[in-house]
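User: ok so my PI wants both of these folded by tonight, can you help

Assistant: No problem, let's get them done. Here's the first:
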Amino acid sequence: MRLLLVEDDVELAQSLVEQFRDLGYEVTHVADGLRGLDTALEQDFQAMVVDRMLPGMNGLELVKALRLKKSTPVIYLTTMSGIDDRVQGLEAGADDYLVKPFAIAELVARIRVMTRRIPPVESTLRAGTIEMDLLQRTVTRRGQPVDLLPQEFRLLEYLVRNVNRAVTRKMLLENVWDIHFDPNTSVVESHMSRLRARLNAGCDIDAIQTVRGVGYRLVELN
């Protein structure tokens, strides 16, 4: 399941990201409301976990704006526990409301209940001859298995979801590594090089293009 976490408490966010990933979820974290809205509109998520009090745009405004275009299930996390606060949150378009402090087990249970209300999401991604099984975490190209490490799998998944579109190094750092600053390392380049080597083994055409001055693009090849 792909989750978007919009939470400005860095310590809490790091803890939630780690616990969600341990449970097998793919998590994208952003720390302010405006970026949360942009990310939610640009990408597809099965559920969103949103703090009520956020910089840039608060949680109520975020969900109201989101509901104009998408019906992604949303649960609020907040210290605001009054009845009026809950009513405001639900009327803004949220599906559920959880007061801090909370147990991760309850949060996960509420997310599962929310996502049962929507049709099942795709378990397979395809881009030309590349096929990804998101449940089995396997990849094939032209029917041949491609063995990838977990981070390489996440990198390829992001490229496949953005097939034929150029993605920047900043986009990759934020969405694949959850890094929202430039670490001044070659982490993107080194992982991209290894992914290319594994994905293109036995093929005469590189499925991943380098877009000069921009980043990379996965192209849909036959």
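One down. Here's the second:
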Amino acid sequence: MATLHLFENPEEIGLHLADRLLRDIQRARESGRRFVLGCPTGRTPRPTYETLARRLSREPQDLSHVVVVMMDEYLVEQSSGLEYASDRMPWSCHYIARAEILDQLNRSLPEEFRLPQNSIWFPDPSHPEAYDARIASAGGIDFFILASGASDGHVAFNPPGSPRDSRTRIVALSEQTRRDNLQTFPAFGALDSVPRHGVSVGITTIMAARNAVMVLTGESKRESLSRILKAERYDPQWPATVIHEFISGEILADRAAGVGLG
């Protein structure tokens, strides 16, 4: 089972995770290999990305060997079928990856240390199954930052009922997931504006990572934290329980999410 660690607030979690990631990234560089990092978007990882940027501004570190594997992206209907949402939309994962990861981390780095733009990967909705093979060819994901949906435990776009052996695929987003995403991104304006499909890594894709943490912050994540802690292994009805499938999996929660846990 995953180990729970409680922090005072999201910023403390950001400090903890940023320190760990920078150490692991440095170790990978010293051993001459790339570091493959699985990343979500949204409010949960934002303190970590912000702290990484601050640390890099004070002590520049080489990120040129880092590959960022993004978990998912919204899809919209076009005449040719389902395609990525526009990267100009502030809620699109491409937009967030560029603004909160690529641009923010690179801002203070010399050119030779920067995270390359082509090292931020997304699953292709035309061939989603190729994503798992691409990740495997890169040596697999070293570390996955995970986040949970507030009211249905979705992780990436994997809804309740997602089988353990699911891989990267196109997913129909449940209404509850879409409501959670509307809360995360008020820029949508209304539920009808939230896309109804996404392309997402699967549960097996996540489980193939060597290490992972599940981050839960805020009062809205109390139910999810409770459901995760009551589980001992992956429960398809609450996909965030995937964290229990890691030998050294960790749950990082703030006090607001962990009220009543001590």
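The chain is about 30% helix and 20% strand. The chain has one domain: 3-254. Good luck tonight!
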